[in-house]
Structure formats: structure tokens, C-alpha cells
Amino acid sequence: MYYLKYRPQTIEEIDNEDVRTRLKNVLSKKTISHSWLLTGPKGTGKTSSARILAKAINCLDNIFADKGKSEEPCNKCDNCKLITNGSAMDVIEIDGASNRKIDDVRELIDKLKFAPVHMRYKVYIIDEVHMLTSESFNALLKTLEEPPANTIFILATTELDKLPKTIISRCLRLNFSHAKKEEVLRQLGRIVKGEKLTISKDILESIAINCDFSFRDSAKLLEEVVLNSIKTKEEFFNLIGLAENKEDLLHFVQEMDVKKVLIFIENYDIAGGSFKSLTEYLLEELHANLLAQNGVGEEKTKYQFNAKQTSVLIRLITESYGKLKMSPIESLPLEMAILEYIQTQKI
User: Fold this and answer.
1) Cβ-proximal residues to 137 (8 Å cutoff; 6+ apart), any chain
2) Which InterPro entries does the protein's record reference (predicted)?
3) What Å distances lie between residue 144 and 33, 91, 92, 150, 248, CA to CA?
């Protein structure tokens, strides 16, 4: 599987630009927080980054070993290889969902008295940490306040709002935003180069637009493209069950073509598309359009909406996003928002 085979193994390979820059800046100062919190949606690289962090601070051939000036893990020393292979005794990955009870956390805390077996630091990576019980968080809090000198905690979650503020305040936080189109293309480029693939730019961009802002999903889509010998955009859209590209919807809105808008949304619904994902995509595009209109970001605007039209669309679609969970028909809030916009423009 491409996603597993091409997981980032160094800081430089982390495709999320903000995370890559922040991690480099922090580690270049040889700063090692004993408690880290990685937050963001699924498939954005939290677990991969946690493993890279564990390698960097335990590497035998970088600044943390007083060798050279690089904070990058070398991926050649014994410590790096053990962590990469998932066989390092001192790097313990825990699923918060299945180890959420107070007894599980007490058992973890009890083991902290033992020094690392082979490495500089013992690293606990707790995924989906928001699943822990209140009692478990209380037990963990004292450890985060007074951690052993040779122990590092890396907490990862997709639901930051479920974590106690006391836990959040004890950690150095890294925010993983949705994967941007350019970041997904960077990842796809690594895979294409590594596999020696010949994939058109149109298809790669279509993958980046339709991967639900997820590095994991983009790699899976690329693999499907290769397995199905997809050569054209039309074949790609047929593969994922869409009659149109997501980009086309805003063009239909721009043309104020109600029929095309409703047909697109109906086909998207029939194909099993996520309206949460579609709405987020539209807001990302409109936000980029708004910035470009004001001289920020891209030099040219992709759509012909003026600043007022862009603002109205953003407001209406944002309101529809808040109604998604309550709507008995998932497509309805977005349909009503776009229809309301078109009606206001015709007055």
C-alpha cells in the first residue's frame, strides 16, 4: 500500500508545511518537551510525525547525539531502524480507545519507573487520547506535570475539544490542518517518483481535489488509479463515482445555472459523496478566491465572483455547514444555500 510504503520517515518528508516548519524550528534548538499534543483530522500525518519525532530525539547520529548540526533522524543507526520497523522496546504506541480505563493508565504509569532499555528516551505515543476516561486523564495529568527525565509523551487526537484544558496546557501543541492541495501534490510527487509512474498532471490534481483533504486517502486514490490503469480525468471521475469534478460546482454557481447545480449535487449524493467534505472544499476555494481578490496568495482568481459575491457565498455556505448534522436530507442545506445565493443575484 502506497500510504504505508511512503509514510514520511524524516522531518523534511512531512508534507504538512506548517508542521514541518514548526518541528524543525523546535528541534533545531535541541528543545525536547516531555509532553507533546498532535491535533487534527484523520489522515493528516499525526502518527507518522510522532514516530519521526521519536526517531529524531533518539537518533545516534544527529544533534541529539552531539553529532553534526542536523535535527533529522539519520534512518541508518540502530535506534532509527528499530523505530521505523516498529520493534523498538522504548517506543510504545497505545490506542486510547482500547486502553482508556483508569487501570490501563495506572499500569502505564507504574512502568515509568523503569529506565529506557536501549534508547535515550522512552516514548509513549497515545493515539485517540480523547477516548480516555475522566479518571484516566486525572491520573495522567500528574505524570505530565512531573514526567521522568527520560520519558516523552506524544498525545494524538482528532477531537481536541474532548480533552481537559489541564491536559492541553501541559503539552507543546502541533496543529495538523486539512491537507492543502499543494501539500497533497507534494506527497503524490514522492510516490510517483518512487514508483516510477507516469501519471498526468490533470489526474494528480483531480486526486488532490477529491481526497477529502487527507494524505492517507490521496495515496489510496493514487493506488486505485494505478491498479485500474486510469489515463484520463473522465475515467478517474467514473472510478470514484462522480460525474463531475468538484471544481465544476462553483463554475455552475457562477453561471447561475440552477439545473446544473442541482444535477451535480444529486449525482454527488447518489455516488455517496460526503457533503461535509464538499462544503469544506467549497469554503476553501472561496476563501482562496477572497484572498486573491485582495492581493494575498494566488495571483489570479479562479472564479469570477466579485468580493461581495464571494463574501455572501461564504456566509451562506458556512451557515449550511452548521445545519448538516440536523438535516434529514444531507444535500438539502447546501442546495438551499446555493439557491438562495442565485436568487439574491437575480434581484
Assistant:
1) 163, 164, 166, 167
2) AAA+_ATPase, DNA_pol_III_sug/sutau_N, DNA_Rep/Repair_Clamp_Loader, P-loop_NTPase
3) 10, 17, 16, 13, 49
Amino acid (1-letter code) at residue 310 = T
Could you tell me which of 189, 124, 184, 177 has the C-alpha nearest to residue 150? 124
Cell numbers given for 109: 504509569
Structural domains in the chain? 2-175 (3.40.50.300), 181-240 (1.10.8), 243-347 (1.20.272.10)
Question: Using an 8 Å Cβ cutoff, are 210 and 240 in contact?
Answer: yes
pLDDT tens digits, 224-276: 999 999 999 889 988 887 766 777 899 999 999 999 999 999 988 888 888 88
Distance CA 347, CA 345 (A): 6
Q: How far apart are the first and last CA of the chain?
A: 53
Set of cell numbers at residue 186? 507534494
Angle in degrees, 0-180, between the axes of helices 246-254 and 258-270, rounded to the nearest 10: 160
Where is 50: in which H helix or E strand?
helix 46-58
Cell output for 13: 518528508
β-bridge partners, 92 = 124
Nearest to 237 by CA among 227, 225, 249: 225
